[in-house]
Amino acid sequence: MGQQTIVIKLGTSVLTAGDIHLNKPRMVELVRQCATLKQQGHQIVLVSSGAVAAGRSQLAQPVGDSISEKQMLAAIGQGQLIHLWQSLFALYDIPVAQMLLTRADVEHRERYLTARDTLTQLLKHQVIPIINENDAVATSEIKVGDNDNLSAMVAILANANKLVLLTDQVGLFTADPRTNPQAELIAQVHKIDDELRALAGDSGTSLGTGGMATKLQAADIAQRAGIETVIAKGSEADIVLKIMSKEALSTTFMRFDAPLEGRKKWLLSAPKSTGTVIIDNGACLAIARQGASLLAKGVVGVSGSFVRGDLITVTDSQGQVIAKGLCGFSERELDTIKGCHSLDIASALGYKASSVVIHRDDMVLL
Question: Which helix (H) or strand (E) is 99 found in, with range?
């Protein structure tokens, strides 16, 4: 099997066993499995939900569901949560470290590299990083919003071999198993398509923020980065060990064989697209088949608001997403030069500018 780096995402429904408070026996079980994997030489990273649940258990009076109240609970619970993990892993003499991230921490290349270096050093010194979104201060603009997508970003940061998403479901089914007895478990997925996304539906629990749809988003990001993703039921006995020995009832998303190099992994995982350019069929073919940069000549439409250096989405005329990349122009500039030959850009704008809209090195194909 070889030594692997494994990112394990623990959903709120797993850590609370369906209650509103953290379930310590469940957490002990998960710690024991992580300790066994450590003994086998694997590196473990945990992405742990549960701060709000931990905070709730500290207050005598009930608390509402507004954003500010949830942020308050997260602020109270974050310390409780890491203290609990710390005391449980101490039973096996395993040190842990807390990392609180927001999208802003991975959106800028420099901060992304700093977070990656911190994670690398923790693993090198046999420490288990325990990661959560910094909910107490995160605003909607910098929020990842769910720990499924956060765990995919973390898997890329950690250069992981495997991403394990533990939830209250066995995996992805051909229909909703709670309402359809004919529903069958999909054991392996090679490519995530619209049909599969339709099967994922929405959230299956009121306790967490991530449903099966966000797990597919996470698996999609991880697959493209060359990371295998497994969705499995966190309450199953020895579930993590069974996943490692390929004995678990689960859905496995096979990794793509040609993973992206580092900079493109960052493009895939981190920034939120702020605008869109629509390109013609000729540009689609040049990008997809010839490895070309995107030129102004191929742009037929521009939408959204962005400045030079922002990440934008590239779509065809039918709205199908083709790529993401860092744009060399603002939306106003691009609207002015769309359809122009590269040699005519400077005269169209009245000043010297880039000759390409998105350089090949700054683009990731989707």
Answer: strand 96-101
